[in-house]
Amino acid sequence: MGDNTILGYRFHDASLLELALTHPSAGTPNNQRLEFLGDAILEYLISVRLFRQMPKAQEGELTRTRLQLVCEETLSDIARRWGIGERLRMDHGEERTGGRDKPSVLCDAMEAVLAAIWLDGGVSAARDTVERCWPKRAEPFRPNEAKNRLQEHYQRNGGDPPEYRVLERSGPDHAPSFTVGVYYAGEQLATGTGSSKKLAESEAAMEALRKIEATK
Questions:
Q1: Which of 215, 64, 90, 83 is nearest to 146 (CA)?
Q2: For residue range 60-102, what is the model confidence (pLDDT) as tens digits?
Q3: Which among 108, 111, 203, 207 is annotated as catalytic?
C-alpha cells in the first residue's frame, strides 16, 4: 500500500490505513474493530452537522435525515466514488463473489477508514473528511422511502418482505392515531405511530432500519 492518501486525507501512520482496508476474509487483524468505532464517529459528526444545519428541525426530522446520510446505500455510493473497493485486501473467494462492490463490504470499509482518520489526525481530520466526502444535504424524505429500504434489506439477503400490522387505533375520526408494528419471520422489528396507517408504517420501518444500522 504505497499510497497513504484516501478520501483526500494523507495518513501519518500508514499502518492504520492498511488495517482499515483489510477485509475480515484476509484474516486478522482486520478492519472490524475500526468499523465499530467508525460507525459511532460518523453518527456523532453527522448529528452535530445536522443540529447546526437544521436549527428548526425536531428530533424526528433530524433522525430521519441522519439515517439517510449514514445508511449502507449512502456509504457504499461514497466508497465507489472514491475507489475504496479497489484498494481492499480480501481473499480470492470474497473477491470472486463480487466482494469489492458489495454494499455491506463498502459500507464497513468506509466506517473503518473514517475511524482510522480519526485516530491518525483527530476529530478535525475526521470532520473535514465528512464535509469533503458526504452529501451536504439528504434528499427530501418520502413516506415510502423507509419501507422500500427495509424491504430491499431483507430481499437483498434472499428473504421475504416485512409485514405491517395495525396494533392500535385511537383518537376521534377527524384526528385518528395509528400504531403499527413491522414484523419479519413472525418477529416484531419495531413499532411506529402516525396520523395515518401509511405514516405509522413509515415510522415503524424507519425505527427498524435504525436498529439494523445500530447492530452493524
A1: 64
A2: 788 888 888 888 888 999 999 999 999 999 999 999 999 899 9
A3: 111
Range of the domain at 173: 145-214
Cα 65–Cα 71–Cα 72 angle in degrees, nearest 5: 160
d(CA 192, CA 205): 8
139 catalytic per annotation:
no
Catalytic-role residue among 39, 72, 120, 207: 39
* Residue 203 a catalytic site member: no
We report the CATH number of the domain holding residue 181 as 3.30.160.20
| Residue 2 Rama label (left phi>0; alpha psi -120 to 50; beta) | alpha
Q: CA–CA separation, 103 vs 89, rounded Å?
A: 16
Domain identity same for 73 and 15: yes
C-alpha distances in Å from residue 70, one per residue of 1, 53, 63, 180, 203: 27, 16, 11, 25, 17
pTM over 0.70: no
Determine the residue type at 44. Y
Element (H, E) at 189: strand 187-194
